[in-house]
Amino acid sequence: MAKHSSASSFPIQKRWSLMILLCIALSTAIAFFIGASFRACNSRDYSEKNNFNSPIHSFDSQSSAAEKEEDPLSFMKSKLVLLVSHELSLSGGPLLLMELAFLLRAASTRVVWITNQKPTERDEVIYSLEQRMMDRSMQVLSAKEQEAVDTALKADLVILNTAVAGKWLDAVLQENVPRVLPKVLWWIHEMRGHYFKLEYVKHLPFVAGAMIDSHTTADYWKNRTHERLGIKMPETYVVHLGNSKDLMEVAEDSVARRVLREHIRELLGVRKDDLLFAIINSVSRGKGQDLFLKAFNEALQLSQERKLKVPRMHAVIVGSDMSAQTKFETELRNFVADKKIQDSVHFVNKTLNVAPYLASIDVLVQNSQARGECFGRITIEAMAFQLPVLGTAAGGTTEIVVNGTTGWLHPPGKEGVTPLAENIIRLATDIETRRTMGRKGYSRVKEMFLEHHMSRRISLVLKEVLQKAKRG
């Protein structure tokens, strides 16, 4: 269980309910590694506005009952797939690649993992994650040994994860790069401009395909690579993420949700009728926790000025790092102290197992800044728990949240603080709107963002890339 703190920290005692919580939460924790959480493709057509790049493909979201029951990745049986990650950590990119690895292993694919950048000293997180992979009969290789080169040459498919992983090609494969590129699928998650460096992506035009998590991100990469680097994107496939069966089982189990809700609220020291607005992301300026706290503080002031009768409101920041507080997190805590809202703001240590917190809160705030999230999986996870979402009108969030139906969108940046504050007030004062948005969000997840939706989409991508690899 993650650690909690507020301005006035409190002890966390072991209780009998913790055992129940751990039993229920176990499957959810596993889901973040085994479940196909990265699977669901948007059904909308993507218009080809420019002719300087290859088309961006999107697949229809309808699937038959037979497709849901049958493993669409069964054709990958006995094939050799090399996965190359720029790092191995608890961040989104590496974990998504691990989930894909476990899906492939479930289809009896031979999977080999390489981490390009590893610390010289033993890292417990890396050790634990590598052990999980080896427990599932995956082979873990050193990134720079000859065996890595040999595996790349004989593999049926090579998947590079994130733009930064492109550095591995020249550093390790060297003169063998041209032989490997025709069977590379490049999975890109980044939305920040500093990733557009030729040293990272100079081989991008020559790979079999690129897979990107949202249409917004695909469009961004398409234009930026052309305008800034003078290169074109390869054939590009947009594949939205999706919720695993394990997460959906918890979300749809009313007893599990109630136990988790009661326990987490007890740990946080909040009452059952209090309203919890949470942001669940790694604590960093790009995720917008500072602007969320400003909006939350403004909402508290508006509530007092307007003499509104609302339940007591709390802000929950899940994604903190209690052991190594950054300058940014120190700023957040100082802001809370300066505004004297310590009793209403709670910091929770970063965790893989977000289901208990989704069960315990009332509204998710997805406040990623600038270009927003590439996709933002936490958004569809929250919608599975029938939570309304207050998100920035940027990035993949705009492809998930239907403004005014499953939540409300506000502008990124400082200009979004007051609109977010007003949206907090609107939901705090209207329980029926919260419930209606939550139900509609859940329906949208069931329609578009489940495991079986993405299983079929990812299989279509891999089939096309494998065919190109054979021709190459």
From TrEMBL:
Domain of life: Eukaryota
Glycosyl transferase family domain sequence ranges: 262-443
Annotated keywords: Glycosyltransferase, Transferase
Segments traversing the membrane: none
A Pfam family recorded for this sequence: Glyco_trans_4_5
Keyword Glycosyltransferase: yes
PANTHER family: GLYCOSYLTRANSFERASE (PTHR47252)
Descriptive protein name: Glycosyl transferase family 1 domain-containing protein
Protein species of origin: Rehmannia glutinosa (Chinese foxglove)
Lineage: Eukaryota, Viridiplantae, Streptophyta, Embryophyta, Tracheophyta
